Amino acid sequence: MQESLPFPVTYRLRRNPAKARIAPGGNGGNDLSLHAASDPALASPRATGFLPAVTRVLALLVEIPTALAVLAEVVVLFCGVVARYVFHAPLIWSDELASIIFLWLAMFGAAVALQRGGHMRLSYLIDRLPPAGRAIAEALNIGVPLLFVALTMSSAWDYAQDQSYIETPALGWSGLVRAAAMPVGLLLIGLSAIVQLARFRLRDLLAAALLLGAVAALLWLAGPALHDMGSWNLLVFFVALLGAGVMSGLPIAFGFALATIAYLLTTTSTPLSIVIGRMDEGMSSLILLAVPLFVLLGQLMEMTGLARVLVAFLAALVGHVRAGLSYVLIGAILLVSGISGSKAADMAAVAPVLFPEMKRRGADEGELIALLAASGAMSETIPPSIVLIVIGSVTSVSIAGLFTAGLLPGVFLAVVLAFMARRAAGRENLAGVKRAPPRTVWRAFVAAIPALLLPFVIRGAVVQGVATATEVSTIGVAYTVVVGLLVYRQFDWRRIYPMLVDTATLSGAILLIVGGATAMAWALTQSGFSLALAAFMAGLPGGRWSFLAISIVVFAVLGSVLEGIPAMVLFGPLLFPVARQLGVNELHYAVVVILAMGIGLFAPPFGLGYYAACVIGRVPPEAGLRRIWPYLGALTAGIVVIALVPWLSTGLVAKP
Fold first, then answer.
1. Domain ranges for the chain
2. Out of 66-80, 82-96, 256-270, 466-480, which region has the weakest mean confidence (pLDDT)?
């Protein structure tokens, strides 16, 4: 079978060393980490003594229960689906128990993410500092989470005690069982930060502490003046202060939370328990349960070989034609996106299989990275995209509707990219490349049938009412495990624990951002900013078309600076009411802004998705800096067409 394909494809999946190096941000990272002190030039002598042992013990204390929480979520939700649909005996407590476990998973996962350098951040600028400056910046960026814990620990405990008077309706448990996750998680985050800070030299720690103290003193002294500024002080806290933190590499989740705390402490008398409560509310949405489960599904898909058989089938089908492997890459990203929900997982599953043969055919490595990154941006709306799930959670838009609305725009942009890839493949070397015989194509198709069915299983389970958008990921997990064990006979049990921990790491990073952004959005709403923004956007000349145009630009910029999920969580609740007011279909608006965000996420020099593509493809970032812009330009033109033709987003959605 393999010898007859346009290039050799093996079905034995190996661990991709590039993937293990990706910082686990929501759509990939740029291989940058908070563990800067692991550099011998930046580390304290203590890092070679007792500290590694302390680090390992703390990691195990956090990682083991976190991995068990991920496994428990899968089991509880899957049992709920089976009990309701198969035995017609619903488990009335399953969602409640899953919600309790979920908050513990989110907080413990955030601690694991801090230990592993997995929190989303923009490190483009600090990575270009000299070693001395970078050491201070990294110490500062680990010290900030510790400061956040110090400011909120007491309020978190008070909040948990207040919740103890509430009894859960189905299980009859005290609310403290769930709410205790907040102070316990904060404690673990604080301990993790202390261990990380112990790796730095004393002079770097003192410099970072002086900087934090100087900012705090300046805000305290300027407090009366900031209060008298009225709403204009929002620019100081949520533009200047937050912007400086993000640009200096501060983890975005802690940047949101601390900017909100600084605003409340300086200009109001609001207790910080409000911040803890808003964070709890943001992280506790049942819809967000799908995030860790789809992340786990993506990893299972890679381990069991589902992604590889999809690539092999597409390669057998069109790999022999000019630009054929580019078509395979685009098509594979499109199909895999409908399974994993994670762009980093999508790219890591496809690129290592195709890049060697594409390079042999004469493709420039910069062109390959440009196409890979553009394909990641193209597929942002292919269900079950994590961004779709998050935006549905924070804006109350139907998840099932979003899953349907995102299909046609993704396919349309794939066609746009295929046209661009064809133009770029003019000098491709096809010497020795033969068309796969029909028998080989048929065998590759038969091998790929279980993988091809998975997106339909996921979508069909939601549409037919078998499972909710939250529960359907467990059906995908169960399906993938069965296929891996019985069909492809490829299931490495040794990788289960690392996969569970990786899932918790990414989930904790995402959910803490959701919590921090929810608190920040609440503060902006209380300040009157939301009403002012709605009035401004609604009053723009040109009505909804001007609104859509500005939204495309704004979300492209935000996607580059904040990544997709933070941008959606922060501005989605503010702008979606304006869209409804102007008569823009909310599903159509969601698709447009998500695609615009994807452009920013994969656009250099700040887009983290672009650097994730470079890490996965093992290509230096500068190789694709010039070549990616024609692809991004074509995608932008495609987004404009989608914005002007709402039917592309709403045509497949069933009318109520």
1. 25-284
2. 466-480
